[in-house]
Amino acid sequence: MEQSQPPRTDSFPESTIRENDAGAAFVLESKGQWWHAGFHLTTAIVGPTILTLPYAFRGLGWGLGFLCLTVMGMVTFYAYYLMSRVLEHCEKAGRRHIRFRELAADVLGSGWMFYFVIFIQTAINTGVGIGAILLAGQCLQIMYSELSPNGSLKLYDFIAMVTAVMIILSQLPTFHSLRHINLASLLLSLGYTFLVVGACINAGVSKNGPPRDYSLESSKSARVFSAFTSISILAAIFGNGILPEIQATLAPPATGKMVKGLLMCYSVISITFYSIAVAGYWVFGNKSNSNILETLMPDDGPALAPTWVLGLAVIFVLLQLFAIGLVYSQVAYEIMEKKSADVKQGMFSKRNLFPRIILRTLYMMLCGFFAAMLPFFGDISGVVGAIGFIPLDFILPMLLYNKTHKPSKSSLTFWINISIIIVFTGAGIMGSFSSIRKLVLDANKFKLFSDDVVE
């Protein structure tokens, strides 16, 4: 490619010259409506990670917890709205981007940005895949321990079971083919939210309820580290990092459709996030752990809610985790099939079917292996949030919008975007440091393939 040519002309092909791009034609086929995008977005954001919200609040307290939760919600909605506007801007100019990495490299005019986004997205996808399998295995372990308290099966056995199911489900060929699964996922998230909130209220009003303590860490430095770790967890909970790929599933033109999908998603967020955070932290305070369901079922006493309520909530969580694992695997599948599949042959031809089965199986086995080896779900959320979601969801959308729409440097929009970039760059750096610090400290508390999840 000549030096004078912009990178998008050759390196980042548009939809009109994607005849040989199997990742676009198969995995990211564009057939969806706005409500399908809403289903995908809700599954990508509103998942069982919301059960860590009381855990995040214990590092912030009531006031700062509410403030950070609200600011995160407002900033992410704004960022996703700007991202959608950038994608629509490029589409109107004849460049419909269906991949985050192509969009970033095109708009910012930098080839290294292409590989930076690939690296970050891979970290996010793999981290969420590991977390989904780990938490699903933990859900199975919870049910098993209730039915067979002295049973011989270990956490890694349940992780292997979950991985086997994920391998089967991963063979659904396209992102669009997940639309019905993701509608069910949306309903499941509402279902276990209501069940968990009801269980927390029941525990809170019970005379056997736990004593409440909302105090923070005694050491000032420890409070600072805990706060930034909590902010990183909130960033991971609100983040998705795959909005361009979700918008790619929309039938063109995508103008306006993504905003409707975002409104659907954030309607569910407003119901689920605040209710879980308030109910869980109100009851357990600084005794909340990284899975509020575990807190409701203490090891040293009876369950703090009816068994059928907790059991049904665990089942709902388990089922939704399969959908989340599938959604966050799509970018990895698209990258693999862009190289391995032949678009000139059918999606289900032998030439494309066997490589798809092999590669997707290996990917899921890798996620399952690390989930079994490193069982500390809360810490994974913090690291993924700081290193992955903050750059993609809090920084890049503002940069891309300022570059494409060129708001005046004296405008409020320009300075809001610059302020968000500065604040969340600092939060990302501090969050990375504090999350990795906690990861290192917790590494002394577990053995490889442990039967317990470190809190």
UniProtKB/TrEMBL annotation:
One of its GO terms (molecular function) is symporter activity. Residues 31-431 form the Amino acid transporter transmembrane domain. Pfam families: Aa_trans (PF01490). Keywords: Amino-acid transport, Auxin signaling pathway, Membrane, Symport, Transmembrane, Transmembrane helix, Transport. InterPro entries: AA_transpt_TM. GO terms for cellular component: endomembrane system. One of its GO terms (biological process) is auxin-activated signaling pathway. It is a multi-pass membrane protein. The chain crosses the membrane at residues 37-57, 63-82, 103-135, 155-172, 184-205, 225-243, 263-284, 304-328, 357-377, 383-402, 414-436. It is found in: Endomembrane system. Coiled coil: none annotated. The keyword Transmembrane applies. Carrier protein involved in proton-driven auxin influx. Mediates the formation of auxin gradient from developing leaves (site of auxin biosynthesis) to tips by contributing to the loading of auxin in vascular tissues and facilitating acropetal (base to tip) auxin transport within inner tissues of the root apex, and basipetal (tip to base) auxin transport within outer tissues of the root apex. May be involved in lateral roots and nodules formation. Belongs to the amino acid/polyamine transporter 2 family. Amino acid/auxin permease (AAAP) (TC 2.A.18.1) subfamily. This is Probable GABA transporter 2 isoform X1.
